[in-house]
Design brief:
Blueprint (H helix, E strand, L loop, with lengths): L1 H5 L1 H10 L1 E6 L2 E6 L4 E2 L5 H10 L11 E5 L5 E6 L14 H8 L2 E2 L2 H4 L5 H19 L11 E2 L6 E2 L6 E2 L4 E9 L3 E6 L11 E4 L6 H13 L3 E12 L5 E10 L15 E6 H9 L22 H14 L11 E3 L2
Parallel strand pairs: 1-5, 10-14
Antiparallel strand pairs: 1-2, 2-3, 2-6, 4-5, 7-8, 8-9, 10-11, 10-12, 11-15, 13-14, 13-16
The protein binds zinc ion (ZN).
Length: 333
C-alpha cells in the first residue's frame, strides 16, 4: 500500500489487477438485495467499457483514488462519475441512465451506511472521505493555481509553488459520561427523532485529548470530570473526515446537576442501566407514536457511540471484573 501511494507507475499497474468502486457526486453505487445492500466492484476492463457506454473519457480513471488493499495484494480504488474534472465531457449520460445500466442506485452514504456490512461500510466511508477531500482541494490556497493529485490520491501538489497537500481528519472527542449507576446521554437537534447519544465535540487547536474532554463536558452539560478512560477510535466521514476518539468519563462525586448548553444541545439527561439496555435493543429511526412522541433509541452498531454505551452496560453488569486490558487509563488531576 505504501509503495502504491508513493509510486505513480506502480499504482497505475495495480489498477490493471485491481477493483473499482463507483460513486456519483459522493454517493456510492449500491445494489439493493432482499436483506442488505450489495456493493458492486468492477475490473479496469469493465470500467473502461462502462465509461465508453456512459460517453465519458477513459482518461477519467486517472481521477480514481486508492482506498485499500486485500491480503492478496489486490488494490481497491474508488471513482466518482459525477464530480467535475478536466476529463468531464458534456456528452456524458445522466445519473438515472447510469443507474439503469449499473442495475443499482447511487445512494447517499448516510442512508446506505446502515444497510452495509461493517467491511463495506468502512471501505465506502474511507472512499467517500477521500473523494470529498480531493473535490474540496482542487486549488492551492496560497497561489490559487489548480493542484494535481498523484496517481493514488494520497496527496495533491501545486505545480507553481510545490506545496504538498495531504488529506486530513479533524479529531473529535466522544465521551460517555457516568456518575456510577447512571450515564448521561444527549440530543442535538440534527439527530433523528428520539435518538440520544454520547457527548461529542471537536478538539480545539493546541488541546490534548484530556483537555478537550474536560472542556466539552464542562461547556455542554456543566459537569466536572474526575476520571477518563480511553476506549477506541474510528474514522467517521461526516460532515467532513473526523477521527472519533471514544472515552468513558466519570464525574466528580456529587456532580449530578446538568446545566445544559442550549446552543449545542436539545436535551441532556441521566439514564439508568435498565433504560439504556432497553433502548440499545431498539433499531431506529422511528416514526411518531400516537401520543406525538418518539421512542428512546440509541446509535446503531456502526457508530462508535454504540460501543461506548455497550461497554458501559457491561461494566454495570459485572463491575467486579477488571477493566479490559486493551484499554489504557488516563487519570486527570
Ligand atoms: Zn500554489
Amino acid at each position: 500500500m505504501f509503495e502504491l501511494k508513493e509510486d505513480d507507475d506502480a499504482c497505475k499497474k495495480a489498477q490493471r489487477t485491481g477493483a473499482f468502486y463507483l460513486f456519483h457526486s459522493l454517493a456510492p453505487l449500491v445494489q439493493k438485495s432482499e436483506h442488505q445492500y450489495v456493493v458492486p466492484r468492477y475490473s479496469l476492463v469493465e470500467l473502461e467499457r462502462l465509461l465508453e457506454t456512459f460517453g465519458q473519457d477513459t482518461q477519467k480513471i486517472e481521477d480514481s483514488v486508492l482506498i485499500g488493499c486485500s491480503g492478496q495484494q489486490e488494490a481497491w480504488f474508488a471513482l466518482d462519475l459525477g464530480l467535475k474534472s478536466s476529463s468531464s465531457t458534456s456528452a456524458s449520460l445522466q445519473k438515472p441512465e447510469m443507474e439503469t445500466e449499473l442495475k443499482g442506485s447511487f445512494t447517499e452514504l448516510r442512508k446506505a451506511l446502515f444497510h452495509l456490512s461493517m467491511k463495506d461500510a468502512t471501505l465506502l466511508s474511507t472512499a467517500q472521505a477521500l473523494l470529498h477531500w480531493h473535490d474540496a482541494h482542487q486549488f492551492c490556497s496560497r497561489s490559487g493555481q489548480p493542484t494535481k493529485k498523484n496517481m493514488a490520491g494520497s496527496k495533491r501538489v501545486c505545480p507553481s509553488n510545490k506545496i504538498i497537500y495531504y488529506p486530513q481528519m479533524a479529531p473529535v472527542v466522544i465521551t460517555l459520561v457516568s456518575d456510577g449507576p447512571r450515564c448521561l446521554l444527549v440530543r442535538q437537534s440534527s439527530f433523528p427523532k428520539g435518538m440520544y447519544s454520547a457527548l461529542a465535540g471537536f478538539c480545539d487547536i493546541g488541546e490534548s485529548l484530556e483537555e478537550a474532554v474536560r472542556r466539552e463536558v464542562a461547556e455542554e452539560v456543566g459537569l466536572e470530570m474526575d476520571r477518563l478512560q480511553y476506549s477506541a477510535s474510528q474514522h467517521w466521514p461526516f460532515p467532513n473526515s473526523s477521527l472519533m476518539i471514544a472515552c468513558h468519563a466519570t464525574v466528580k462525586p456529587g456532580q449530578t446537576e446538568i446545566q445544559m448548553n442550549l446552543r449545542e444541545l436539545e436535551a441532556a439527561a441521566w439514564f439508568s442501566h435498565d433504560e439504556v439496555a432497553t433502548a440499545l435493543r431498539r433499531k431506529g429511526p422511528y416514526t411518531q407514536q400516537q401520543d406525538g412522541t418518539f421512542p428512546f433509541w440509541l446509535p446503531p452498531k456502526l457508530a462508535i457511540a454504540h460501543l461506548l454505551i455497550k461497554e458501559w452496560l457491561e461494566k454495570q453488569s459485572c463491575s467486579s471484573l477488571p477493566a479490559s486490558p486493551r484499554s489504557s487509563h488516563l487519570h486527570l488531576s
